[in-house]
Amino acid sequence: MNGYLAFLKKEIFEYVKTYKLLIMLMVFTVFGITNPLIAKLLPEILESLINDKGIISLPEPTAYDAWTQFFKNATQIGLIVMVILFSGVLSSELSKGTLINLLTKGLSRTAVILSKYTCMVLVWTKSIALCFVLTYGYTVYLFPKDETSNLLFSVFCLWLFGLFLLSALLFSAALTKSNYGCMLITGIVVVACMIMNIISSVHKYNPISLATDNMGLIMNSIEVSSLYSAIMISCLLSLIFVSLSVVIFQKKPL
Amino acid sequence: MDWVMLKEYLPFLIPLVIAQFTLSITALIHVLRHPNYRFGNKVMWVLVVMFIQFIGPALYFALGRGEE
Q: Which of A78, A223, B24, B31 can bridge A74 by disulfide, Cβ–Cβ 3.0-4.6 Å?
């Protein structure tokens, strides 16, 4: 436990010093501010482009458009930036050999893996919370009349999908030596989930539906209860991935 | 863009401008203080960090920053 806390502190310090925390927070801040703004301005931009034709009338933007932008940006660019930044989570320390000293002095390998996972989860939580608060504030400011439903639950689903992705990332980092291998295996996990999503009966249990059904939740076209099994499966898979990476890392030669 | 519109979007522009400036200034200080890069040289990174909004500093910290 002591080793876990000490290593967690070191991890947080590392993210600050390597500017990874700064990049994550800035990327999500920029998204948070621009999501409602783009939703508001998109009709005007389009209108100025197709001005000469002049017949097409575009619908007034609503809060739904802002949240569409939020879930599009957070799930696409946000998650990709996160995976790229965290892809060196184990490989950088293994290649530099900085971990060997600590491990020979009695730090357990389980503590290393668990504190790395905790730190990644902390950074992800902070970023998504910041992005959500900014988008929420500006959406209320720009579209004060629009009502949305299940907003917090929908963001919670996205957060949970991030947790699942991070556990897959940790698992692939434990499997491979380089950060490219890590990115590749994480990508394969996501693509596998997407392919499975084609089968409609799997959709209910697929973790990726946590990241694709958000807009349906907000517009009330998808029942909250329909996602419970996907939530259960994601938690279970994350647990399995983290424990597998602990087992693999125990046996990994340094 | 007339003045009324500009005023309407000021609450958006100010935080964005602040974010952009903090990013590029931290990156610029880092570029000037640590003259070892994984690739490229100082002039290139200064230009990238100063003139490519948001993506430039992120690129520098993710790819261009050399080891200590």
A: A78
